[in-house]
Amino acid sequence: MIIAIVLIIALPLAALQFGLLVVALRDMMSPQRRVKGNKMGWLMAVLFVHIIGPSAYLLFGRGEKEIAVEEEAIEGEII
């Protein structure tokens, strides 16, 4: 009985942690995305502070996408 209750709580939390970790790491390593602040610090927070680290990165650490390259490509095609 206790094992079932623990599994009911632990499995969704583990899935949430894994999902946030994958999304944060993928976003952080994207060549089109800048990171606000120290990238190594955010990486450590994402990897070692479960659920809170990836959530904090996704809320506060994401920078703007670098759209200058896309805009230059579009301007080059139009001109």
Q: Would you kindly provide a written description of the structure presented here, covering whatever features stand out?
A:
This protein is mainly α and 79 residues long. The protein has one domain. It is 75% helix and 9% strand. It is built from four helices and two strands, in the order αβααβα. A two-stranded antiparallel sheet has the order 1-2. Helix 1 packs antiparallel against helix 2. The radius of gyration is 18 Å and the shape is elongated. The N and C termini lie far apart (69 Å). The model has no long low-confidence stretch (mean pLDDT 85).
Concise structural overview:
The chain is mainly α and 79 residues long. The protein is 75% helix and 9% strand.
